[in-house]
Structures are given as C-alpha cells and as structure tokens.
Amino acid sequence: MARHQRRVGYGLPLLLAIALHLGILVISVIRFPAAEQEPPNRSIVQATLVSTETATDRAQRAEEAKSAAQAAKQAEEEAARQQAEEEARQAERERQAQQAEKQAAEAEAREAARQVAEQASEEAERRAAEAEREAERQRQAEEEARRQREAEEQRQREAEEQRQREAEVQRQREAEEQRQREAEEQRQREAEEQRQREAEEQRQREAEEQRQREAEEQRQREAEEQRQREAEEQRQREAEAERQRQAEEQRQREAEAERQRQAEEQRRREAEAERQRQAEEQRRREEAASRAAEAAQQGLDQAIAGESESVANSAQAEEAANGFINLVRQAVEQAWAIPPNVTGNATAEIRVRLGPSGELFAASIGRSSGDSAFDRSALQAVRAAAPFAELRELPSSVQRQYREFNLRFKPGDIR
Amino acid sequence: MNDAMSIPHLIINASGVVQAVMLLLLLGSLLSWVVIFQRTFVMRRARNAHRRFEDRFWSGVDLNELYRETPSEQETLGAEHIFRAGFREFNRLLPKTRSPQAILDGVQRSMRVAWSREEDRLNLHLVFLATVASSSPYIGLFGTVWGIMGSFQSLSMAQQATLATVAPWIAEALIATAMGLFAAIPAVIFYNRLSAESSRLLGKYEDFAEEFHSILHRNLQGRGDAAAG
Fold this sequence. Notes:
The complex is a heterodimer of chains A (415) and B (229). Chain A has 415 residues and is mostly helical. Chain A contains 6 helices and 4 strands. Among the domains of chain A are: 41-56 and 314-409, 2-Layer Sandwich (Fusion Protein Consisting Of Minor Coat Protein, Glycine Rich Linker, Tola, And A His Tag, Chain: A, Domain 2), CATH 3.30.1150; 65-207. Chain A has a 4-stranded antiparallel β-sheet, with helices on one face. In chain A, a hairpin with a 5-residue loop joins β2 (348-354) and β3 (360-367). Chain A is flat and about 195 Å long. Chain B starts with 6 loop residues before the first helix and ends with a helix. The relative contact order of chain B is 0.16. The model of chain B has no long low-confidence stretch (mean pLDDT 85). Classes of the chains: A mainly alpha (415), B mainly alpha (229). Chain B: The Tol-Pal system is composed of five core proteins: the inner membrane proteins TolA, TolQ and TolR, the periplasmic protein TolB and the outer membrane protein Pal. They form a network linking the inner and outer membranes and the peptidoglycan layer. Chain B: Keywords: Cell cycle, Cell division, Cell inner membrane, Cell membrane, Membrane, Transmembrane, Transmembrane helix.
C-alpha cells in the first residue's frame, strides 16, 4: 500500500532544486550571449591630429610668404617708378603743350599786329585821299591825320613794345632751350665719357688679360724650352755616358761584371729613390685628400648639427603636443556616450577650434559618419570635455598649431 | 550588452564580500527549494493518505479489523496515526477501568499527542522557508550596499566620474539584491501555500479525532448501558 512508503526523502527534492537553479543559470547564460549582438557600449576615441604641420614646412611657408612679400614690394616699387616716370612724361608733355600754346599765342599776336598795321596804313591812305578830296576840312583832316599819326605812333610804339616783350620772351625761351640742350649735351657727353671710360677699362682689362696670357705663355714656353734643353742635355749626357760606357765596356771587359753590379746597384738605388718619391707624393696627395675630406666632413657635421638641433626642437614640441593630444583624447573619450545601434566602422571627424586658454570656440562636423545621432554624440563629447586648459602648458611656439585640430571618432571595443 | 556585462562575468568579478553574500543567497535559495519540493511531496502524500484513510474508515469496516490491518511496529502518519493512538489507548484502558469518562479522557489525550506529532511533522522546515523568505532580501541588500560602497571608492580614485566607471560596480552590486529577491520570492509564496495546506490538513485531523472520539463515546455509552443492564 502507498501508506507503507510515506516517508519522503531529501534526495529527490535536492536534485530538483539543483536542476531548477542550473536551468535558470543556463537560461541567463544563453540569453545574454544572444543579446550580445547589440553594439558595444564603450568605445575608444581615436583622436588624431590631422592638421598638424611640421616645423620645416612652416619655415618653408614663412619663406614663401617672405618672398611673396618681397615680390609684392618690388612690384610696388616698380609701379611707383613707372608712375613717377609717367608723371614726368606727362609733365614734359604739358610743358611742351604750354610751349606750343605760347608759340601759337605769339604767332597770333604777330599776325594781329601785322593786320592792324596793314589796316591802319590802308585807312591812312584812304583818309589822305579823303583829305585831298575834301579840301575844306583840311585842317581837321590834318589834325585828324596828326591824331591818327599820333595814334599810329602810339600803336606802333605799343606794337614795338609788344614785339620787344615777345622778343624777350622768345629770348628767354631760347635761353631755356639752350640751357636744356646744353644739359642734354652735358649728359650725352658724360655718358660718352662714361662709355669711353668703360671701354678704356675694358680695353685695359683685356690688355692686362692679354699680357697675363702672354706672360703665361711666355712662361710656359720658357719652361718648355728649359725642359727641352734639360732633356737634350740629359740626352747628351746619357749619350756620352753610353759612349763612355761602351768604351769602357770595350776597354774593361773584365771589370764589366763589377761595373754592371755597380750600375745595377745604382739603378736599384735610383728605383728605390723613385719609389720613395712616388710614395711621398702619394702620401702628400692622400693627405690633401684627407684634409679636403675633413673639411667636407666638418661642413657636413655642422649641417647635421643644425639639422639635429632643429629636429630636437621640433621633437620637443611634438612630445608636448602629443601629451596634449593624449589629454584631449582621454577627456573626450570619457565624455563620450555612444548612442546605441552604431555600426562598428562608423567614423566621424570633428573639427575643433580652441581659444588661447583652451576654451572651446567652435566644434563642427568635419566629416560626417552618415549617422546623425553618432555625429551629435561626438559633438556633445567634445563640448562636454571642453575646456582643454592643458593648452596653456604647451610651449607657446606650438600653441597656435594646436588651436585648431580634427578629432576622429570611431567606436570599437576597449577590452 | 556585451560579455563584460553578462551576469556570470559580473559575479566572477565581484568583490569578496559581495561574492560571499551571493554564495549565501545561492545556498539559501537552493535549500529553500529543496524544502519546497520536499514539503510539496509530503503534503501531497499526506493529503492522498488522508483521503484514502477516510474512505476506508467510513466504509463501515470494523475498527478492530482496521486496527489490525497495519502491523503495530510500522509507523503510521496522519489521521491513521491518530486513530491508532486513540484506539490503542482505548483498548488498553477498557479492561482496566469501568469509568467511560476516564477512558475517553485517556483516548483524547493520546490522540492530542498524536495530533501534535503530526503537526510537528507537517510543519517541519517550514520555519526555514520563512527565515529565507524574510532574511534573503536583507542579505541581498547588504551585498548591494557593500558593492556600491566599493563603486564609490573606486569613483573617488577616478579622475572623472562617468557612468562607465560606476556601471560595472553597481551592476554587480545589484546582482546581490536580485539574488536575494530570487531566493525570497519563491520562499514566501511556498511558505504561505505550504503552511495553509498544513493547517488545513491539521484541521482535518482534528475533525477526524473529534469524530473518532464521538464514535468511541457512543460505543462506551452502549457498553456502559449493557453493563448496567
């Protein structure tokens, strides 16, 4: 009967409890890896300076700017010169125009005087005829004539004065022209003298060169002659010696061996001396070469030292800048909250502009990742991480360089 | 959520105190479930046995026969236990005294003892369940508080307070609370259910004891009348 096995043991419940817990554990373990498809929450910011310039580049740019400024200055100067020349030319033209005007006025005045005179003479003739015709009014006519004569005289006097004045003006003008001409001549003369002097100098120089060349040639010729003479003497001497030797050989066949030995020794000694001389020359040449090499080496060393100094400077600046970049990267990374559902290879570039003390002036999206939420989160991270007071700790030479930089945001697993 | 934030990873990376709390809670949960299963089985068997015994008892069988069906050395449970205790006492007292009141008093006493034993048997370990149900939330809360303390300590060392530096600590601290609740909730539910069932069974046993007592009383009245007559 069932009553006989009523006692309930603990084995089965224990098994059941363990199975239950294991089941729950397995469910929790299995479900969470399934949920792992969600993107990782924590990511790294890859802050890379994109707009960094090397020191040498900057120097080059400065040079370029300087040369550009110089060119601009030159152009300005040239323009100013041209303008001045133009002005001068214009002034001259004006002067010429004035002169022409004056001449024209003169000619006109002369013509007018002539006309006036002619008219007056005609009138006088007519009046004389009238006087003759009108005998009654002779006195009046005479008087009139006298008055007319007086007027004429007056007019003549005036005309004369006018002429004198004109002549004076003419003279003055002529004198001026004369002066100008003289000045021009003077200038021409001076230019000619200059040219003559230069030509003379040229000639003198040429003559000197000619003389030098001749002297050199002379010297060469003399040296050659000397050499030839020496060679001839040598040859004569050798021939004599040969002859003597032959005679001696003929005469003293017995002592030949001895003499040969002596000659051999002599030759050996000579050869040795020759070798020594050659060795010495070799040494001298080597020394010169080594000296030249040393000089070159020193130049190279100096160049290298300068280069290395500049490299060290730039390296120091770069180190400080790297520290700054690391700090910025860390700050931005900590402030960054990545939105969910971001693909792993989304990359956004944020252009950051800083004030002189590290405060944020502007942050804009340089290159969008295509995901606006991601871009916004990156912007917010930069804004939250500002201000970057570490900028003030940078050397002032580099500070300006890092006032503006780009930050690249890229989600990825930190662990 | 990545692997770093999964529950097993968080448990493994938790601090020592929090890990101990978690272990305690796991043990409590395991034991409470053992108790739950065992008590459930016990209750079901007791219920079935009681139904069977009542059917048999009220089927009109002779009580002496019913008593003799089960060997005396075998331990009986539930209503049968009460019946056997009462009937044995009745049979022992019947030849010794003529007073029906004394016999009924003895029978009632022995049945009360048997009932008390049954109550003790049915309520066994239910107290443990109650303890787990009431204490494990507090234990879990302790683990959480400890973990959050650690998280704030680590926060004080960090340069900048972000959610990313605090989040793992708080997550693993909250796991302790979750485990406490995980252990407490079934314990509470099953404690209530099992204790209700146990009291219902005990009530049934009491009813049976009263009925049996009345049967014996009727018997004694008849016998007393017969003896007197």
